[in-house]
Amino acid sequence: MTTAKRFGYARVSTTSQTNDRQLDALTAAGIDPADIFTDKISGARQSRPGLDDLLSRVRPGDSITVHSFDRLGRTALHVFQTLADLEEKGVTVYSLKGTEQQFSGATGKFLRDVLILVAELERSMNQERVAEARAAKAARAEAGDQIAGRPITAMTAENIRKVRKLKDKGRSVAEIVKLTGISRASVYRALSDK
C-alpha cells in the first residue's frame, strides 16, 4: 500500500517575479522542497509545465497545497475546473491563504468558490483601474497637458535662473535635480543654453 504524499505548487506570472514568498510558506507548512512544483508563466496559459508535471504524479489520497487558489489558474473557471478534476481524482487541495485550510463538503466548496470569484474580481478591477489611468494619461498628453510617462517640470525663466545660480555655486547636476525637482534633461538644457 502506498502512502499519501503532500505536494506543493507555486506560480508567478512573469520571469521577472520571484516565487520565494510562496516557496517559504509551503516549506513552513511542512511540504518537502523536493515535492514542490513551480512555474514562472501566466495562469492564462493552458499548459504550465510545472503544474502539468505535478498533475501527472498525484494519486488518489495525495494532497496539493498552494499559497492561494488563484495560483492554479488565471480565471475562476479555470481554477474551478482544475479543482474539480483533482477532487474527481481523489486529490485534496489546501490553500495557505490566511491559514492552512481545506474546503470540503457543500459549505466548504461554496466558501472556496466565493473566495476564488472574489480574487478574480479583485484582479479584474485592478486591471480596469490601470487601463483607465493609462487612458487618462494618454488623453492629457494628446491635449498637450502632459507627455505620457514621466511628468515634466516647466522650464520657466525663474527655473532656468535657479539652475544656473546653483551651478555657479558649484552644485552638481545631480544635486540641482534633487534640490529643484527639475528633470536632469531640463537642467542640462538650461545649462547648455547659457
Task: Describe this structure in a few short sentences.
Residues 5-141 form the Resolvase/invertase-type recombinase catalytic domain. One of its GO terms (biological process) is DNA integration. The protein is of the alpha/beta class and 194 residues long.
Task: Report what the structure shows.
With 194 residues, this protein is of the alpha/beta class. It has 2 domains: 6-121, Rossmann fold, CATH 3.40.50.1390; 157-192. The chain is 51% helix and 11% strand. The chain is built from 7 helices and 5 strands. The chain has helices at 20-28, 49-57, 76-88, 105-142, 157-168, 173-180, 184-192, and strands at residues 6-12, 36-40, 63-66, 92-95, 101-102. It has a 5-stranded mixed β-sheet with strand order 2-1-3-4-5, with helices on both faces. Strand 3, helix 3 and strand 4 form a beta-alpha-beta unit. The longest helix is centred in the middle third of the chain and has 38 residues, at 105-142. The protein is elongated. The termini are far apart. Pfam families: HTH_7 (PF02796), Resolvase (PF00239). Belongs to the site-specific recombinase resolvase family.
